[in-house]
Automatic annotation (TrEMBL):
Gene name per UniProt: priA
GO cellular component: primosome complex
Pfam family membership, one: PriA_C
GO term, biological process aspect, one: DNA recombination
CDD domains the record matches: DEXHc_priA
Helicase ATP-binding domain mapped to chain residues: 227-393
PROSITE patterns: HELICASE_ATP_BIND_1
Keyword flag Transmembrane helix: no
E.C. number(s) listed in UniProt: 5.6.2.4
Organism from which the protein derives: Salinicola socius
Record keywords: ATP-binding, DNA replication, DNA-binding, Helicase, Hydrolase, Isomerase, Metal-binding, Nucleotide-binding, Primosome, Zinc
Cofactors demanded by this protein: Zn(2+)
Sequence similarity: Belongs to the helicase family. PriA subfamily.
Protein name from the UniProt record: Replication restart protein PriA
Catalysis: reaction(s): ATP + H2O = ADP + phosphate + H(+); Couples ATP hydrolysis with the unwinding of duplex DNA by translocating in the 3'-5' direction
Amino acid sequence: MADSRTDPDSSPPVPRVLRIAVPTPLRRLFDYRPAGRPPVGGWRPGLRVKIPFGRRHLVGIVMECAASSELPAHQLKPITERLDDEPLPADWLWLCQFTARYYQHSLGDTLQHALPGPLRQGRPLEARIRERWQLNTREALALDALGRAPRQRELVQLLAQHRHGMITSAITAQGYTRAQLQGLLDKALITRSSEPLMASEGWSGALLAEPSLPLNREQAVALAALHEGLDRFHPCLLHGVTGSGKTEVYLQLIEGVLGQGRQALVLVPEIGLTPQTLSRFRKRFRAPVVALHSGLTDLERLDAWEAARSGRAPIVIGTRSAIFTPLARPGVIIVDEEHDGSFKQQDGLRYHARDLAMARAHRDGVPILLGSATPSLETLAQARSGRYRHLRLTQRPSRHAPAKLELVDLRGRLRQGGLVPPAIDAIRQALKAEGQVLVFINRRGFSPSLACHQCGWIAECRHCDSRMTLHRQPPRLVCHHCEHQTPQPDACPGCGSADLRPLGAGTERTEETLTTLFPDVPVYRIDRDSTRRKEAFDQLLTEIRRGEPSLLVGTQMLAKGHHLPHVTLVVVVNADAGLYASDFRALEQSAQLLVQVAGRAGRADRAGRVLVQTLHPDDPNLRLLADDGYDALAYQMLEERRVAGLPPYRYLALTRFEATREEDARQMAEAAGDAVREWLATRQLPVHCLGPVPAPMERRQNRYHLQLMLSSEKRSALHEAGAWLVGWLESSATRRVRWSLDIDPMTLS
Ligand code: ADP
Ligand code: ZN
Ligand code: ZN
């Protein structure tokens, strides 16, 4: 609140012009005139204001205070209202500016994206308050004073059990009313106090709620190295095989940071923020752990944001967007499973949370720890060059090393539900030995295509260049690219034959086969279809964790992130998708996924086996992965990337164009290509421009997609070219064509 007693003469001078970031796609600031009473500390960047914009009123953020504008004075509109006295946090503002600049995105849009909903809508930035009620006097005295008011007597007895008082919601949850509280308050038997909604309740003194584990030698070496860099920017890679105890190292690192009175920010993949992960953090620390996930309401998100900003939240853990959480006293950033694709946002503001985390740690001068069993080639290259400290964990605390991949030849063998006889035999053995089996298949539905055996017709999507997936539960054809659905045809639309056959297996088909083959064993299918309701997923996991012999058929939803202690055999139905794909990252991503999936086998007290079915058992990359492991393949892929001039040795910026009419998209993309080439020639920048070329799936949802690629060995040159191209597109693109720029694209689709 503004202090009305402030002497107006001592206020800082009011600037003539406020330059404001407005939530629009336009990459510029907008000039306004300040109006109303200036804030106590004067006009500063980071203050939110309400402004007239076109016919609407929007919430914008002051970015600069200037003495003059390019607009003539009479065109300069005044702001409607000032919303803040204090600016938004400086570290947050810096990160947004960095993000907008790096990803060539509108600053107003970026700020909007990074702000909790209620703040976007103009709600005041202050902690929501809750009330706490506390008995004022000894229980017996209070009861004496009350006479015969049974509910109030009970309420007194309840409060007497809680020395630190109780919050309103805890009291009303037990059936008491506000009126009863008010009654006791009026008699002065209890007191009422206010506190922020997310107070770090009961946390003082001892940090730990349970003792930390004694570390093994490798963990101890890693932790010592991390402790030594606590007071500076210190980028580290914790490169440890699955189950090697990376999380234990995170926990003890955080302990050190909290001990200094500072905060820890932990980023995990979307699929990794499981109740198990959270409970590991919550069990360890007495300090509150604030989790940012998609299940929060807007107000809960604001509470978490505020608690982090004010420093009341010592540990913040969240998925991608949690990188935009301000911290009062940053102490460390940890990115778990740093290679995971979900850290990159694939639409709108296409940022990579791991890369932003690196920039942020650098700016704040704090250590950053990237953890993975299968580091991205980007991170591995940095570690190899010595820019990141390379910490390794090669041993598992449990007795068993991660299982080796055993390749199983699919060629010329009869398949049932995607599985060949050796795999089925192995499943039988594992079940006999009372183990659980995880069958990994990265395709939902019954079968990835439906074909006519007479004429060769294949069910295709009317709106995309793709095939329809056959589902049986319930029966229908679904396009997994646009969600278009049609009933399952009874006869071939081409020749009328009724001989329509599913080609290949998806989760539903494998589930069906396994149910037939092993009628006495429960089969649990876990994919997006079977777990649309959240409780369904939790229920399945509870069943599975009871440890009875059972078959789990799942997509990466199950294969990543979840701890499945009773699995002794993993079968990968088909490992070939990434081997010959056109996308240059496909092999890397598929190797990472294979290793993660394999890591589910033999986590507890039993050794595990991993069978990988393939049509290419002699593929040199797959062999290398199976025989020598991920690191060997990764270093070889790095060499290939260097030779081919691909990331991480060259930087990429991909411009995507799309339109309803193919020629609109093509003309725009070609004009952009011509323009940028001409500009590059005059500037002599070391940037290559490739294309335009059709996107790998050219027609998607009835729209045509093309792309234009910029690449350079010099990041600064690439950014200069990207910025110029964006400027050109902003002024030249027609409404019929949608375009976007993707800096450091993760896929070329
Ligand atoms: P990661 O994060 O590398 O996959 P985890 O931290 O989940 O590995 O550790 C795997 C298992 O080993 C967990 O059950 C964990 O409690 C246990 N563990 C980790 N470190 C130790 C240790 N130093 N001593 C004993 N058990 C450990
Ligand atoms: Zn036919
Ligand atoms: Zn489609």
